[in-house]
Amino acid sequence: MLAVTGSSGSGKTTLLTLVGGLAKPATGTATYDGGPVTTKAGDPLPGTGFVLQSYGLVPTLTAAENVSIALRGRGVGPVEATEKAVQALGRVGVDELADRLISELSGGQLQRVAVARALVVEAAVLLADEPTSELDEANRDVVVGQLRMEANRGAVVLVATHDPAVAEECDEEVHLVDGRIEVHEAPPPPPEPGHEHDAFMRPGTS
Ligand SMILES: Nc1ncnc2c1ncn2[C@@H]1O[C@H](COP(=O)(O)OP(=O)(O)OP(=O)(O)O)[C@@H](O)[C@H]1O
Question: Which portions of the sequence form the region Disordered (predicted)?
Answer without folding.
Answer: 183-206
